[in-house]
Amino acid sequence: MDASVGRPVRRSVVVTGATGGIGAATALRLAGAGFDVIGTARSQEKADALVAAAVASGRSLRTVVLEVADPVSCVEAMGQIASMTGGGVWAVVNNAGVPQAGSIEDVSDEQARHLLEVNLLGAMRICRLALPGMRLRGEGRIVNVSSGLGRVPWPLGGWYSASKHALSALTHCLRVEMAHAGVRVSLVEPGAFATAMLDRAIDDLTQADRGGAEGYDRSRALFGAVNARVPGPEPVARTIEKALTSPRPRARYTVGLDARLLVPLHTVSPLWLSDLIKHKITGLPHTSPVRAGAAKETA
């Protein structure tokens, strides 16, 4: 059956960051839907674990070792994938990502560069390497996994929000640039789902905390509470499958109740109200205690 009119048969898809969370759920779901899935992993050990998980669920997929933050690794892995697929994949799912939580003041240049390499430059690099094959065949799909926080910048997660906001902008540009070549490009914006990402964000906050820094304790507690209550990543995997199988995929898919509520609320709210809500939730104060005390004494 042709992919443009129904569920594709053995269309090749590369899923980056496929060894956990949204990536693993997506790789396994697409394998079960008949795709020829190639999941990327940062180590052979993780790749082997993904293959074992697929076999245990009665599915099959292939893997390559890839570090999306390393340009050489990307070129080598995508070259290997081109050989595995006879000219390149039909679709790319750019899912690999890291959180890097912490205040702007506490995140180093090195940490910020790594975040941007993984979340932004790596994703675009994979697109750039996959596009020649798609253009040659006159068709293809790209799904870039962003975040609801790409449209709702969140305190103590500013670098993450910035990377996802930039990914959104580039995805929208790529969609227009590649439409004439038959390449359909979609953005998926998940809200909070139970994955290791929030655990990693909590670790980031612990490492960045200068001791008594405002907002850190409450943010760690918030991330932990959210991770304990939200569902697993399967709804995001279903949405990614929809973007790959729909004859007319949407430009943007927002997934999760929190994202569907917060994104439009943030869009229509004045900045002062948005700031007030973020102060309230994170516990970050509006005014320095010193300045506030001085103002009272003056009065």
Walk me through the structure:
- There is one protein chain.
- The chain is α/β, with parallel strands linked by helices.
- It is built from 11 helices and 7 strands.
- It has a single domain (about 10-285), classed as 3-Layer(aba) Sandwich (Rossmann fold).
- It has a 7-stranded parallel β-sheet, sandwiched between helices.
- α1 crosses α8, α3 (about 70-85) packs parallel to α4 (about 110-135) and α6 packs antiparallel against α7 (about 215-230).
- It is globular and about 60 Å long.
Brief descriptors of the model:
single chain, 299 residues, alpha/beta, Rossmann fold, seven-stranded parallel beta sheet, 11 helices, 7 strands, globular, disordered N terminus
Task: Find the structural class using helix and strand composition.
Answer: alpha/beta
Low-confidence segments: 1-9
CATH topology: Rossmann fold
In percent, how helical is the residue content? 40-55%
* Number of helical stretches of at least 4 residues: 11
Tell me briefly what this model is.
Helices cover 55% and strands 12% of the residues.
Layout: helices, strands, pairs:
Blueprint: E1 12-15, H1 21-32, E2 36-41, H2 44-56, E3 62-65, H3 71-85, E4 91-94, H4 109-137, E5 140-145, H5 158-178, E6 183-190, H6 196-208, H7 216-229, H8 234-245, E7 252-255, H9 257-268, H10 271-282, H11 289-298
Parallel strand pairs: 1-2, 1-4, 2-3, 4-5, 5-6, 6-7
